[in-house]
């Protein structure tokens, strides 16, 4: 009897509150878009471009908030625990699908703790190095790394970051382990690379395009099947003999579980308009990224892809013996 009273008392206001929200009631104030990595990096760049067009669509400011740390899991946890009112959103990438296998003490569940809004964009990666590194192409790089593996290091944005996964793949393909140095994002890692404190990195084109074009870093290949128009002078890894080294970083938008349906619907409509926006597409396109098609910018499109990616990465990570306590 007592238990029933408690349940009723806590559930009725929530039901009333959720049921009473209409599309007209939202948004009435600015919306936070959490970025799980440092400012100035690839996720931040995508998020800031998206925030401009989402703000126009929603007629409210979407503010980017950098919440870096622990390979993106701090921001993911924060949004999972946020009030489900549509004012705390998360932009995250492939790391959302690798976190369950990589982190033994994950405090959120990617499959149950969110309302999915939709996918945003796919971003290729590049294998880059500090300008002083002697090798001038991929074949030379492989030989050089194998010979000097004790002396070299590879920067990344923490366990589960795209740069971490791409770096692992590279090391396993060339069968040479080198020391990895984690940062809060690849923006600070890029500064370290350009300053010569680290030697190598595998990072998204949204962070590397300008540096490659201006000669501030060396590039050894793009991780796509075909060359990308924005970096057409850079050969693919496959072209240089490393077949199957294809990495594309997918991104999605999340709200916390229980966000009312009219709010989710409004966010989905704004996201769909954003991924079709010519300016958004061309601005991220100049950085090698590709906005997703409208059918992927949906809760179902994100849910399906996330689940498939969790199923794909779990066994690979477990086999590699990678995890954080
Ligand atoms: N997305 C990360 C960042 O924005 C980098 C990564 O995942 O490797 O810094």
List keywords for this structure.
single chain; 325 residues; alpha/beta; ten-stranded mixed beta sheet; 10 strands; 19% strand; disordered N terminus; binds aspartic acid
Small molecules (ligands, ions, cofactors) in the structure: aspartic acid
Structural class: alpha/beta
Low-confidence stretches: 1-19
- Mean pLDDT across all residues, rounded? 91
Topology pattern, helix = H, strand = E = HEHEHEHEHEHEHEHEEHHEH
Q: Mind summarizing the main beta sheet?
A: 10 strands, mixed
* Beta-strand content: 15-25%
Helix content: 40-55%
Number of strands: 10
Anisotropy-based shape: globular
Instruction: Please give the radius of gyration in angstroms.
Output: 21 Å
Termini separation (Å)?
Answer: 42 Å
Q: How many helical stretches?
A: 11
Any overview of this molecule?
This protein is an alpha/beta fold and 325 residues long. It has helices at 2-20, 42-58, 73-80, 95-102, 138-148, 162-174, 186-194, 205-213, 261-275, 278-285, 299-320; strands at residues 31-35, 62-66, 88-93, 114-129, 153-156, 179-182, 200-204, 218-222, 248-256, 290-291. The longest helix has 22 residues, at 299-320. Mean pLDDT is 91; it is low at 1-19.
């Amino acid at each position: 009897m007592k238990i029933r009273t408690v349940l009723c008392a806590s559930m009725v206001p929530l039901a009333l509150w959720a049921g009473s929200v209409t599309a007209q009631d939202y948004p009435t104030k600015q919306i936070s878009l959490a970025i799980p990595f440092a400012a100035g990096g690839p996720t931040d760049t995508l998020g800031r471009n998206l925030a401009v067009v989402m703000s126009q669509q929603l007629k409210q400011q979407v503010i980017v908030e950098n919440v870096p740390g622990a390979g993106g899991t701090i921001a993911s946890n924060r949004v999972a625990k946020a009030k489900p009112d549509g004012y705390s959103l998360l932009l995250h990438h492939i790391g959302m699908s690798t976190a369950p296998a990589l982190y033994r003490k994950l405090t959120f569940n990617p499959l149950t703790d969110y309302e999915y809004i939709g996918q945003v964009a796919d971003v290729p990666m590049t294998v880059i190095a500090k300008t002083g590194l002697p090798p001038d192409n991929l074949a030379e790089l492989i030989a050089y790394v194998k010979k000097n593996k004790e002396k070299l290091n590879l920067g990344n944005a923490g366990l589960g970051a795209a740069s971490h996964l791409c770096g692992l793949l590279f090391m396993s393909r060339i069968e040479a382990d080198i020391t990895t140095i984690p940062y809060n994002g690849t923006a600070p890692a890029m500064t370290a690379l350009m300053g010569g404190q680290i030697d190598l990195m595998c990072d998204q084109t949204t962070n590397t395009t300008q540096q490659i074009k201006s000669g501030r870093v060396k590039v050894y290949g793009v991780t796509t099947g075909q060359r990308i128009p924005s970096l057409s002078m850079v050969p693919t890894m496959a072209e240089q003999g490393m077949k199957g080294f294809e990495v594309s970083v997918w991104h999605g938008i999340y709200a916390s579980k229980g966000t009312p349906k009219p709010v989710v619907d409004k966010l989905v409509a704004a996201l769909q308009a954003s991924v079709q926006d010519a300016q958004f597409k061309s601005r991220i396109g100049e950085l090698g990224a590709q906005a997703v098609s409208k059918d992927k910018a949906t809760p179902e499109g994100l849910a399906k892809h996330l689940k498939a990616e969790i199923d794909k990465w779990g066994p690979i990570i477990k086999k590699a013996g990678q995890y954080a306590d």
